[in-house]
């Protein structure tokens, strides 16, 4: 390895996932030791094992364990040319509450400005990417001015990520070069997002995951391309004004008002229980649409102008109501005539099956309507307690869509195995022209496919 060119050796060391590995490399040879101080990227992670060692040190002064912050400062201040820094606690520790950990120290309070003052002014000017994943048990009750401090010294920063902290926006300065911002599990003192929008005008990628403290947030970015927003609380209104946005994933509960002015979208994933007022500009270039909502048909009506959609996924989340909502497949035919791939979540499958079973969908209803002739494949999450009704529904689908050539059905893990085997066997026997794919699904787990792809 010592025969490698220095630039390649530095690049390899810069890709190590944890600073502990970098320190070990220093002990191998003089060449690796010298190169280790030239790395461009450094990641310093507090794992559960490290956390318990630090706690042992507090209880036993004889233990020889360098404090987490001190070890990080030594690494950073002795390195030359750092462009990327990641410091944080491992995910399994990061979201633990004070009650779970009972930790009122500050040795892992990483958005503490006093800690940032010890190293960030020295290297901040050369940083391109900075990630801080704080320890929630120590940070959740301490309001931090870390954003203002970072904006004062990291004037060349392109990417910023902060997790598990309470952040103020007081004193936040303009950061025109920042293109990517991720805030995850943050209590943010910017209830309308006005300060964020004003100080980060060049954002192209924005991730807001579980950001609390918002009342009437408005995302207003001219250059934004990608946005992922999981709303943790129930703000009065949500507004997104982004003329160049091409991909949006939005998950919220029940805002009284939802406004989307995103005419350039090509990919949209929308999960919302219900919006009392939903205002949306036409999205003529929308290609992929995923919608999960209790009032699904009402929401889909808002997308009637998006006739270019080719990939459609719909679902109806579980609720306590005994009444199953209706989902008329002919509605999908009317709204999205050019769909080639249709995915039905478990709630959507059940709603469509019940609608068919109750004769809301009949052959006559399709007369004079636009057909979904281009539909090639259907993927569905299936639940059933008897076979014949499900077979009848599959037959209905295949009769409607003559061009349909592939069906991928994921059967719920709680369905009796003998019923599932019988269902699969009859599907293959009754419709041999169709390419079948089978799998198993369960809430909260990844789908498992039992047969190969088409």
TrEMBL record:
Residues 2-35 form the F-box domain. PANTHER family: OS05G0510400 PROTEIN-RELATED (PTHR31215). InterPro entries: AUF1-like, F-box-like_dom_sf, F-box_dom, LRR_dom_sf. This is F-box domain-containing protein.
């Amino acid at each position: 390895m010592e025969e490698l060119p220095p630039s390649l050796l530095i690049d390899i060391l810069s890709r190590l996932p944890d600073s502990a590995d970098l320190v070990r490399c220093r002990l191998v040879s003089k060449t690796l030791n010298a190169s280790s101080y030239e790395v461009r990227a450094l990641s310093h992670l507090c794992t559960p094992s490290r956390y318990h060692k630090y706690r042992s040190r507090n209880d036993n002064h004889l233990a020889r364990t360098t404090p987490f912050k001190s070890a990080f400062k030594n690494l950073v201040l002795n390195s030359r040319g750092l462009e990327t820094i990641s410091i944080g606690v491992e995910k399994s520790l990061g979201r633990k509450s004070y009650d779970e950990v009972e930790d009122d120290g500050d040795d892992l309070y990483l958005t503490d400005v006093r800690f940032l003052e010890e190293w960030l002014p020295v290297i901040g000017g050369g940083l391109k990417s900075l990630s801080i994943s704080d320890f929630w048990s120590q940070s959740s009750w301490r309001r931090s001015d870390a954003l203002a401090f970072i904006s004062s010294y990291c004037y060349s920063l392109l990417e910023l990520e902060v997790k598990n902290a309470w952040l103020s926006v007081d004193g936040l300065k303009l950061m025109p070069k920042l293109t990517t911002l991720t805030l995850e599990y943050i209590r943010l003192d910017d209830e309308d997002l006005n300060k964020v929008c004003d100080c980060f005008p060049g954002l192209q990628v924005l991730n807001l995951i579980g950001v609390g403290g918002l009342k009437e947030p408005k995302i207003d970015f001219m250059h934004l391309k990608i946005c992922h927003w999981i709303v943790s609380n129930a703000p009065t209104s949500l507004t997104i004004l982004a003329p160049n946005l091409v991909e949006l994933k939005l998950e919220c509960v029940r805002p009284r008002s939802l406004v989307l002015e995103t005419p350039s979208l090509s990919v949209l994933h929308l999960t919302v229980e219900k919006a009392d007022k939903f205002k949306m500009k036409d999205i003529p270039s929308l290609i992929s649409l995923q919608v999960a909502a209790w009032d699904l048909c009402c929401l889909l009506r808002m997308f009637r102008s998006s006739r270019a959609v080719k990939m459609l996924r719909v679902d109806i989340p579980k609720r306590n109501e005994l009444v199953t909502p209706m989902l008329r497949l002919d509605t999908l035919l009317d709204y999205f005539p050019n769909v080639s791939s249709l995915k039905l979540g478990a709630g959507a499958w059940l709603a469509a099956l019940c609608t068919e079973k109750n004769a809301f969908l009949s052959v006559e209803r399709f007369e004079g309507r636009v057909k979904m002739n281009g539909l090639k494949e259907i993927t569905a999450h299936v639940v059933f307690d008897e076979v014949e009704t499900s077979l009848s529904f599959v037959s209905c689908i295949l009769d409607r869509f003559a061009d349909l050539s592939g069906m991928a059905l994921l059967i719920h893990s709680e369905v009796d195995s003998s019923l599932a085997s019988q269902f699969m066997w009859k599907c293959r026997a009754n419709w041999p022209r169709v390419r079948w794919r089978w799998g198993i699904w369960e809430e909260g787990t990844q789908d498992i496919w039992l047969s190969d792809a088409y």
